[in-house]
Amino acid sequence: MRTVCFGYFLEIPDRLRKIPSPAIESDVSEKVTPGYFVAGGTDIYVQKGEVLVESGVHLLNMNHELKNIYKKDGYVHVGALTTFEEFANHQEIINGIPYIQTYMSRVASLQIRNRATLGGNVINATPIGDLTIILLALDAILILKNDGESRSVPMMSFYTGYKQLDKIPSEVLVDILIPESSADNKINFEKVSKRKYLDIASVNSAMKIRCEDGVIREITLAMGGVAPIPLILKATGNYLFGKQVCKEDIEGAFPIVQQEISPINDVRGSVEYKRLLAKQLIIAHFTKLFPEKVAVRDFYET
Amino acid sequence: MFSKIHFLLNDKEICASAHPGTLVLDYLRRILRLTGTKEGCREGDCGACTVLIGEYRGDRVIYKSVTSCLMPLGELHGKHLVTIEGLNLTHLSPVQQAIVEEGATQCGFCTPGIVVSLTDYLMKDNTKIDKEGVKKTLSGHLCRCTGYRSLKQSACFLRNEVKDGTGINTLVANSMLRIFSRNS
Question: Global pTM?
């Protein structure tokens, strides 16, 4: 016997190559045996940890093809298993959402963002999913696959009630399509939580907007924590369409916002507080994206 | 029976026949009795159970920090799992030394996870150790007794320790990652 010294880290790449691939399911949606679909697992293990080790699990991450981000036919395709960190660090995404890394610093922690997937966030259907709210504002389209058949659903019609989806259990979300944003699109995300970091939002919101000569020509406003579903503020968007970015027109939207939302009292805040936040976040969107037109103090001077 | 889960744990090859939904944390602590990885909240909040997962991305093995309390064992197939035991040297590692120098540990429960995350930070190529990077690295670790100031200082202490740069190759060359003696 002879003794060999080596830094074992240097040997790892070769040793990993020698491990035979597992017999993976060629198509995630072909699985017929019962059990839970697990993507990153960062929420389902918190909710159902005890159950999962006793029942069947379909580990979606064993399927490597659902992790790519690429541009095609006017859309940025984001594989459903893309993690939050991969999403925030990808150049295509940074091009479309310049401040994505700042927003992401408010979402969970690095270890969780290394595991949590966009698809998991969307399917989990919590009304305060941070990435869900961003994707909603970006007018994302979901591609669901079932037994080789696929169909597309606009995200804004995907949520039908609290944790209720336009999806049958055997369907698997495979792809998220984000329409390529034109250079004059502006995007902003806001989140208020009890702690600044590592916390779940009381209310969060994202807005995508395009103006021409100071007139709003395109707007999508999404808000979380104010309804049973991640909400698109349709009536508010319709009202703001064609308006100017100015104090009066923005203030005109406040009563409409209040009619559209229906927050409840819970550990993350009272109804009154969440209604106040809804207004504040709309102000924040406009004052951050159009500092030359409106300032925070405009809205608080009496 | 479940199909075997074949992976590398630190320098060892493991062929596990456990339920693929078993948590990596439970497998480490309860089956293998590797108790350096701590069990705190079991909800991914505290970071005490942080481990590194290395896997191929293109032609390179890339490591990332994850909470083992929320990761199914089945996903480890074909991957490299690094725990605190795999980072211990005969002497203190630069990260451990820095924590000692700055008095950045008291009860020590959160310390293994923090050592794992800070080591991961140094394992990335060309890390420029700065305030933002340290903040991001430590963001998922809760400490209830020492506080974070001394931890941030220990990360600054590290800056002087890795003058030759960062990355796995550099760390190995400077005996900052574990060198194993093996019989062959």
Answer: 0.94
